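The pair is set out directly below:
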Amino acid sequence: MFTVYIYVLDTLADWELGYVTAELNSGRFFKKDAPEVSVKTVAISKEPVKTMGGLTIVPDRSIRDIEVDEKAPREELELLLEAGRCAPTSSNSQSVGFTVLDQEFETLRPRIWKSFARLAREGGRKLLLRRYESYLAHPEEPDTLFYGGTQMIAVTSEPPIDGALALANMELMAHALGLGALYCGFAVRAIDGDPDLRAYFGITEKRKLDGCLIVGRTDLRFHRTAPRNPPRVAWK
């Protein structure tokens, strides 16, 4: 038997999980010799959470019960940067810039959260503000912006496509190294919406912030790629 943990949080889109949890729990389509699966819920605490559908879920485990892994060593971060550096650029301009939040990650995390909350408040995004409130209640725990990541690499460039190509290379390298990596669009918006953060990351009228890659250790191992819809192809 092995356990599948489902991370639950306030405003969870509960209908999106229905099909997969039903099949994992029933096992009716598993191979005959497949091991049984135990489905458990995990959250930032064991306090009940309210889904978008109005259901109340009491988590089986708290994320604080899970040991936080160590940060990625500098050597591995340098490999990510090398992968980004080697990505193609427009007219071979090589204008891509990288800001690595390593030692200062925990210092910048609350500042990025604060900018995120301000933008959510100005836009009337109450559901996003609840994320911020959850972070304030447990700032020392993995949150719903950085998801337990321990470092961040912000990528800037003048032609945006250059930064995007670098980020794609870096994500592939992260997975090859066994690291967890995710793109954080909310962090991009939060940084871009704060003048002091823009200056910190070297963002100007010409140089844009193309993306933030959150990096951290993970014990997850994926056995296949994420499902995708068929390609939209026009053969001419």
